[in-house]
Amino acid sequence: MSVYDTIVIGAGLTGLTAACRLAQAGQKVLLTALGEGALLLAPGCIDVLGFQPADSQQPVKDPLAQLDSFLSDNPDHPYRLLGKETLAAGLTAFQELVNRHGLNFQGDPHHNWHLPTTIGAVHPTCLAPASMAGGDLQKAAKVLIVGFRELRDFYPTLIADNLNSQSLGVQASALQLDAPPPVAGRVNITPIQLAHAFEDPLFRRRLVQAVAPHSKGVDKIGFPAVLGLAEHAGVLADLQKGLGKPVFEINTLPPSVPGRRLFEALRDAFLKAGGRLIIGGKILAGRIENGRVVEIRLETASRAKPLRAENIILATGGIFGGGLQTDASGRVWEPIFGLPLHAEDNRHRWFTRSFFASTGQPVANYGVMVNARFNPVDEAGQPVAENLFAAGAVLAHSEWTRGRTGDGLAVTTAYAIAEQLTRSAQ
Amino acid sequence: MSTETTLDDITRSIWEQVQFTADLCVKCNICTSHCPVANVTDLFPGPKYVGPQAQRFRNPKELSVDDSLDYCSGCGVCTMVCPHGVKVMEMNAKARYKLYRDKKPIPLRNRLLGRTELQGMLGSPFAPIANAVFQLRPVRILTEWVLGIHRDAPFPPFSFETFRGWFRGVYQKSPHRLKSEKKVVYFHGCSTNYYEPRVGKAALAVLEHNGFEVVVPEQVCCGLPLLSNAEFDAARHKACQNIASLVKYAREGYKIVGTSTSCTLSLKSDYRHILDIDTEDARLVAEQTYDICEFLLDLANAGELKTDFQPMEAVIPYHAPCQLKAHNMGLPAIDLLEMIPGVKIQLVQADCCGIAGTYGYKKEKYQIGMDVGRPLFEQVIASGSPIAICDSETCRWQIGHATGAKMLHPVELLAQAYGLDVNQG
After folding, report:
1. Beta strands in A10-70 (DSSP E)
2. For residues A423 and A376, is the Cβ–Cβ distance under 8 A?
3. Chain region(s) in chain B for CATH 3.40.50
4. Out of B36, B332, B376, B413, which could bridge B350 as a Cys pair, Cβ 3.0 to 4.6 Å?
């Protein structure tokens, strides 16, 4: 029977951030997840607050300054448990963490980057890799957007036309290329495979030759976010040198290369700090006795294995992530501990009549209710277990799609819990 | 939570069947972006396309739709990283069986590679000659031309003395042999029997040192090489023989401990989930089966493992094989070996070594295997360590072949640290 200080369930942004911080603080940590979390599906930036009010057309410029207004519109959002100071401290700590492990995240909690998306819309985000922050649309510039015929779902003309139509001060032009060999002519290439190709210096030399003649008179050049994986920093520097201009990345459809870089940086930081990782290990159930989780059961290849720890962090995500389960009858439940939920077991109440309702969809706010320590609580506000904590998208009232608060919520709730657990251990 | 049976309970039991897990796929591409094969060749479009996506077009009464699935190495990284519970690798293994059954005869080469016992039975008695002949370059080139087994693929030398021969002839006759109330069953697998008896000897020494009397019952090849070469009927035959022999011990509560992570994974999971042998006996054997490091670490966590290790100053690279990760139990070897004072285990960050059982031996797949393993080989070489550790035999052979490192099973290092004479019994 294993004894850990903390077991973190879930390998998304929340779980990895919490696990890293605890392992680096000297705890014996096990991170276990049914599979890899959603980082590979996200642009790999940290959105803290993108639109306020949620149906505003104007992206937020200073997320921290808008927090009070956001919380008055969304009084139950978990940000209320953190406060501005913890929110800012969590973001700064996250930035330091990933930048110590080979990434280069830029930004601060009082500033949003406005980055172009893969359809040329504006993506307000707080912390972004330098390669993506370079695409910020708040400064007037002439930009060239380059795409490759081999990479589906990235159309430079669409991006440039949409950027130009929004009077952003950015003048965009488009260049669609055949990628150099060995990618040339391939179909079905994924961003990850293309990123591997970019790590080859010969591939990059050929690419620079193809792009350079079209780059006269532009201030910077945007590529799909495929500029290398482990060797990203070198790939970026080499392209900027070859083209003689700043180069930036624009997110693609999944799988996301910046998301993969972020996953790998956090995973490696965790392992380096002595953390133990089981990807592919589903937690079947947890047992709570006298107000404490005494055991959780891991589904191994042929039997359930009991695991024990002083503390458990539930970072299993919302309905999409599998942290909440639903069925055709409308039932909603938390599958590991059967926690009390803010939810309605009636499908007719999951949605409003309007898809784009300014109130959002009720189902997106379903989740685990917590107290100020992030212990799950019942309807009466009583903690279910004192050594169980919930963070990230599994939390109730964390509707993140409209305000774009998901990454900030993940990083800062993970931070707040990790701080609490390392403080209490001291 | 309510206890009544809902519609969802019923649909879930259907989903648990491998083919139906295709319905859990949300097309997120996490599997494809981690697929070691799809990342080095475009001959394999990736697990999402060949697995859950193509599954919709697989009708038992119609021909297979996609020949590219022959390039799936079966490593199982896809199943491991899938956050939605899709059994991608298992789905592909079954589809490959159907592909060969419907469309093409299984080549003689694949039939030979699938029969590790036959290779051993033919090679081992003539080991000195067989090894010398098989090292000759012209012989390997000829084997490549005639059979399609790549000339550079890593074949270890046959051992003249088989593990079973030693067990019967030396170990069982030894006056020092431990009699104990605590008993375990040892599943050695073909590699230990015919190529690396030293691994089995180390396992026995370590188990005995911890007070266990070791039983080595009748056993045959686990069947995985046959399974991965689409010979399901032959694999089922092996599986049933093993289950029949092992279940007698499982019923009495014996734990079945193995040193080959792929054999133990077959006993734990593949028999039921790929070969569809879902009997009470199969379940019982699966429940009682342990990887040796898993077994020893459980002992350690219960305070029952001897820790009289001699200190050993070393930083040693360790590769966790795909077939070990598929046990979903973590990497017990690391925690176990780091109990040896002075030992620091360096986990190599790589998905797969590329050999994938018999995959990397095939002429048309050897280079893919080497490309898959490159990041792993580079890390082992960069470590500068003369030895490296890995739980699975074909991975050891592949990494040794590519890096020149001396490859050990974790239990060999443990035996060394305990200061045990493994040849005595």
Report:
1. 29-33
2. no
3. 307-418
4. B376
- Under CATH, which number does the domain A135-245 receive? 3.40.50
For residue B3, what pLDDT is reported? 46
Q: Do B28 and A298 touch (CB under 8 A)?
A: no
pLDDT for B13: 59
Tell whether domain B307-418 is in CATH 2.40.30: no
Of B1, B34, B265, the CB nearest to A333: B1
- Which ipTM was obtained for this model? 0.91
The DSSP symbol for B19 reads: G
Spatial separation of the C-alpha atoms in residues B197 and B217, rounded to whole Å: 16
CB-based contact, A362 to chain B, within 8 Å:
no
User: 3-class SS at A45?
Assistant: coil
Closest Cβ opposite residue A36 in set B81, B265, B267: B81
Q: What is the pLDDT of residue A188?
A: 75
Predicted pLDDT of residue B2: 41
What is the dihedral angle through the alpha carbons of A6, A373, A371, A404, rounded to the nearest 10 degrees? -80
For B200, the token pair is 């089995």
pLDDT along chain B (425 residues), means of 10: 50 67 88 92 89 83 80 94 91 89 88 91 91 91 93 93 94 86 96 96 96 96 94 95 97 97 96 91 96 97 96 96 94 96 95 92 95 96 96 96 97 97 74
Hey, is the C-beta of B85 within 8 angstroms of any chain A C-beta? Answer: yes
**Domain B14-102 class, CATH top level:** mainly alpha
Interface of B with A in 279-318 (CB under 8 A): 286-287, 289, 298, 301-302
Q: Is A36 in the B-facing interface, judged by CB distances under 8 Å? A: yes
Residues of chain A with pLDDT under 50: 1
Contact with chain B for residue A3, Cβ under 8 A? yes
Contacts of A295 (CB under 8 A, 6+ apart): A286, A287, A306, A307, A308
- Tell me, what's the pLDDT at B15? 59
User: Chain B neighbours among A 213-252 (CB < 8 Å)?
Assistant: none
pTM over 0.90: yes
Positions of CATH 1.10.1060.10 in chain B = 14-102
State whether residue B65 sits within 8 Å of chain A by CB.
Answer: no
pLDDT of residue B250: 97
A40: nearest Cα among B225, B34, B382, B78 = B34
- Residue B88 sits at φ, ψ, to 5 deg, of -65, -50
Across A238-248, b (16+ Cβ under 10 Å) vs e yields bbbebbebbbb
CATH architecture of B163-298: Up-down Bundle (1.20)
Alpha-carbon distances of A295 from A15, A336, B318, rounded to whole Å: 19, 11, 30
Best residue of B14, B50, B81 to probe chain A, by most A CBs closer than 10 Å: B81
Fold of A2-102+261-425: FAD/NAD(P)-binding domain (3.50.50)
Distance CA A371, CA A390 (A): 10
- Amino acid A79 reads Y
